[in-house]
Amino acid sequence: MTSDEAVEAGVRTTIMRGGTSRGLYLEAADLPPDPAARDDLLLRLMGTPDPRQIDGLGGATSLTSKVAVVSPSTHPDADVDYLFLQLGVGEATVSDAQNCGNILAGVGPFALERGLVPPRDGTTDVRIRMVNSDSVAVATVPTPGGRVTYCGDTAIAGVPGTAAGITIAFADTEGSATGALLPTGRERDVVDGVEVTCVDNGMPVVLALASAFGLSGHEPHEELAAETTLAERVDAFRTKAGALMGLGDVTSSSVPKTVLLAPPRDGGQVCTRSFIPVVPHTAIGVLAAVSVVTGMRLPGAVGHDLTASWPDSGRVDVEHPTGHFLVDVEVDTTVSPPRAVRSGVVRTARKLADGLAFPRAAS
């Protein structure tokens, strides 16, 4: 179907909550094959550019302006390919520069519902190639009686109620965007006079202590969001860090993410405040959390002193502005460079709507 035909005929679209994000899930076969035409169609479906996205399906935030494009995979270790696209809200931008672990949580159920993977009775493993980083994740989806269920008793912070738990195990995510777990080759660097650790285990992240930014690291989201000077500082900081990580000019990119660390205060093991890329996150992204825990496990890294009471491996409780996030990471520090042995998280997803979506006409 061409972009013009979609205006009248519609595009089959599933709207899903994946983790703490919401997005449009589409099969690649239902979209124009040309990337420019595809992106134009998606922008019109989402209602971008418009701060309110009033004429589309977006929710006027970056967390609800996301797209998963799914197709059968030819990769020998994967069942489906998943291309993540981050759409702008007020600006007509489409970025494939990063993965999204939250939207990833919905890819397994979507693939099963669309018949791209045959479900089994009990649980079904869906092997997902994340096209953005050419890495593979395995989502274990509850499928009692051979059907996807979204009902369950798993709660995740930032989402009301409970749903079926989906376990996601990551493989080969080291250096997803930069080519190395430690993109600079060092556990510690200095950016704008601030000691940092640059790490990439699925998401390029710059770790720094909140105190280095004059913060406690326990500030409410609203307080951080109101600090315009903080946003400017974070932007300048991450731009320099991006160049140091080999990402080039990141002024128009959503990576690297900046995550500020502080001692826990709510029963967790570390408190975080993250930015996407300069707006404070109400929680923390899935792959950002994985990279944070990975980086902190490295001796000599920023924040490593906070891990003295952590288990050598197993789940780490990461505090964020709206709750907690459990991350399971094991790192082998006996080799050089260090290597991530295992990474995994538990997420939930829920199908919100499925049918035809109608884009606005091309201008």
Automatic annotation (TrEMBL):
SUPFAM superfamilies: Diaminopimelate epimerase-like. Transmembrane segments: none annotated. It holds the Pfam family PrpF. The keyword 4Fe-4S does not apply. GO terms for molecular function: isomerase activity. InterPro entries: OMA_tautomer-like, PrpF-like. Its EC number is 5.3.2.8. Keywords: Isomerase. The keyword Isomerase applies. Belongs to the PrpF family. This is 4-oxalomesaconate tautomerase. It comes from Actinomycetospora termitidis.
